[in-house]
Amino acid sequence: MKIEYLKIEKQRIDKYIVSLGLEKLYSRSFIDKLLCEEAILVNSKPVKKNYRLSHSDIITIEIPQKKELEIKPQNIPIDIIWEDDDIAIVNKPIGLIVHPGAGVIDGTLVNALMYHFNNKLSVQHDPLRPGIVHRLDKDTSGLLIVAKNDKVHSLLSRMFQDRTIKKTYLAITVGIPAKAEDTIKTFIGRSKKDRIKMTVTTDGRESVTHYKIVKYFDFFSLVEVELETGRTHQIRVHFSYINCPILGDNTYSTLKRTLSIVPFHYQKKVKYLLANHLKRQALHAYRLEFKHPFTKEIVKAEAPIPEDIKYTIDWLEKYFIT
Predict the structure, then answer these.
(1) Cα distance between residue 300 and residue 234, in whole Å
(2) CA angle, corner 279, sides to 274 and 285, nearest 5?
(3) Most CB within 10 Å of its CB: which of 111, 174, 224, 312?
(4) Chain segment 205-237, per-residue pLDDT in tens
């Protein structure tokens, strides 16, 4: 693709290409990527994104071919809550990893999406994670947005960055937060002691979590959580930080810590619950709300509370409401 620059005023090349509104050049970040990879040339030479165009400059753009995916479609059942031609919202079950990674090459949500959507998924952002705009931990259940093409993927990514997608979770905490409704605001980064874990740190990324308690138990609480930012393990890190970790979370809490808050004669019951009914963190992404990037209609979706969390709530009501 060749473009002859005819404007008299000087303009940055990245802004100019965006202004053309070309279908294939769907985002500023994609244009920056092409510039870095020297796929965009001016007068047959690579330039930086802040290069200012001159009269009659010739811009050459080479759109890279989409890479062949190495991920195989697999007929894994998925619960599609809502979809149209561009977007799908799925209810991820407990224990399903979102995408292939270290040591995992199949049996993921991505493998299932490729089967059910017949490869009609975004791939340009990351060919090994087609359709994936955001993610949930393996043992966190609930709603995920899936992009069916590259353009909508870019627009959804921008919406996440601009914090215009409302994500609401339900969680059960060990202990009761000091305030019935509050905002937890810290910086979160990778732990220097354990690289698998995240932690509150002074040199991390800003992380903001809003919560309100929706049901009190004697030693636990059911909370509704809204994420303003979307850092790795954010909810789990933040509630551990305020000394009310998520029930069943073995990464940011321990069984000993959980048992320490209940009377001795209840400890065997709690152990039984965690060993036989709640075998993961009690965290569920149950509501999504956003304005559709194309139709501008408000999209709302809810995922039913999974059986293990529902059982736990009933169990807590039986033993820990006085």
Answers:
(1) 23
(2) 120
(3) 174
(4) 999 999 999 999 999 999 999 999 999 999 999
